[in-house]
Amino acid sequence: MRSVIPDYLTEALGAVESDLSGELAGYIPELAAADPERLGAAFATVQGEVYGAGDIDTEFTIQSISKPFAYALALADRGFAPVLAKVGVEPSGEAFNQISLESDTGRPLNPMINAGAITTHALAGAAGLTPAERVERVVDGLSAFAGRRLRMDEAVCASEMRHAHRNLAIAHMLRGHDILTEDPRTVVDGYTRQCSVLVTARDLAMMAATLANRGVHPLSGERVVPEPVVRQVLSVMFTCGMYDAAGDWATQVGIPAKSGVAGGLIGALPGQIGIATFSPRLDPHGNSVRGVSLFERFSSDMGMHLMGAPATARAVVRSHHVVGDGPNALRVLQLQGGIGFTGAEQVVREAVEVAPTEARVALDLTLVHSIDDVARRMLLEVARRLTLDGHEVYLVDPETILPDPDPGDGGRVTVVATVEQAVPSPPAVARDRNQPRPHGT
Ligand SMILES: NC(=O)CC[C@H](N)C(=O)O
C-alpha cells in the first residue's frame, strides 16, 4: 500500500496551484528573479518521517525563518536574562521591517521583526566571538536544526546588502540606544548572511520538527537547544511569527509559524509535526500567498489548531479491583497511558473515593508509558498518604516508569514487577481447597 499522506499533499498543492496572486520580494533584486511558480509542501513527524509533494528539494534562502532559530541559539548560548534585556516578547502588530523600538527602553518589541532579529543575531554564540565566528555559530546551529550541513547563497546576500538601507537604519537606531554595542553595519552584514542560508522545504520541515520534538533532532537524536528555550521560541512564533497578520493567523490556523520573504513558511505543532511550504509570491505582509492557503487547509483538514481541545484523554484509571482475600487482600488501581496532571488528578480522586479498606494497596503501572514530573509527585504523595493511613503500598512497575519512588515524610512503597508479587502466597496447608484460588495466583 502507498502512504496516503503524499497523495493528500499533492491534492492540497493542486488546490492552491492556480492562485497566481502576490508578488516576489522586490526589494532584494536577487529574490525578485526567483521562479515564482515553485510550489512544495513537506511534513516531518517527531519520529523523523518526512512526507512531501512538489518542490521539496529546491533550495531557496531561509530569510526570516532563520529568526526563531537564531533566537533559540541566543537563548541557549547566553541564557534568558541577557536576551530578554535586549529584545522583548510583545507582538508588534507592525510590518516585519518597521523602524520601531519600545519607547522607554529602546528594546525591539520581539525577535521576529527585523529590529529584534538584528539584535538577536548579535547575541548568538558566546560573548566575545568575532563577527565571522558568530555567523559560523549561527550556520552551525541552523545546520544542527536541519540535520545536514547548510551553506550560504553569496549572491542573494550581496544583493540584499547592497539595498539594506532600511535594516541599516534600524541597526543605527539600535546602536543609538546601546541595544547594539558594535558597528551596526557589521551586525547587519551578519544578520543578512544568516538570512541567506540555503534550505529546502524538506530541511525546513525537519527544522520545525526539531522544535516540535522539544529541541531534539528527530533523526540525528542531537539535542540542539534545551527544552525551555523551545517553549519560549514556539510561544513567540505563535504570537509574533506572522507580523501584522499574527492575530488572523493565530485564530484561523493556530499553529506557531514563521514566514520568510523567499517564499518559505514553517509551522511547528508541539509533540507532533513540523510543516513547511514553499511558494515565492508574497501577500502585502510578506507571507507566502499559497503557503498561507496551504496552512489554512492543513489546519482545518487535520485538526491542527492548537486551541482545538484534544479529545478527552482516555481514563487513566483502567480498573480497580481486589486480588486475594482476607488479611492478604490487595486493592489494585490499574493505571494506563501517559499520565500528566489531569491523569494524576483521576488517580487521586479514585484513591479518595475508593477509600481502600484492604491492608495492601498497589498502583499498577504496567500499562503506563509515561509519567511527567507533576504526576510523579502526585502519585508519590498518594502513596505517602496511603502509608500514613496504615496501608502497605506497592508500586507494580516492571519497566521502571517511575524511578526513585521515595514518597518521603513517613511514606513507604515497595516496588514489584507483577501484581502477584504483592500478594503473599498463603502457606499451602492453610489453603481451603474448596475456595477458588485468589485471582492471579
Ligand atoms: N521577512 C523576511 O524574510 C525578511 C528577511 C530579510 N532578510 C530582511 O531583513 O528584510
How many E strands? 12
Report the CATH architecture of the largest domain: 3-Layer(aba) Sandwich
Q: Provide the helix percentage.
A: 25-40%
Radius of gyration in whole Å, from Cα? Answer: 28 Å
Widest β-sheet, arrangement of strands: 2-1-7-6-5
The end-to-end distance, rounded to whole angstroms, is: 45 Å
Number of helices: 15
Bulk shape: elongated
Q: What is the H/E order?
A: HHEEEHHHHHHHEHHHEEEHEEHEHEE
Briefly, what CATH class of the largest domain? Alpha Beta
Largest sheet: 5 strands, antiparallel
Strand content: 15-25%
**Overall pLDDT confidence:** 92
Ligand kinds: glutamine
CATH topological fold name of the largest domain: Beta-lactamase
The domain tally reads 2
Q: In CATH, what is the homologous superfamily of the largest domain?
A: DD-peptidase/beta-lactamase superfamily
Low-confidence stretches: none
Structural class by sheet pairing and helices: alpha/beta
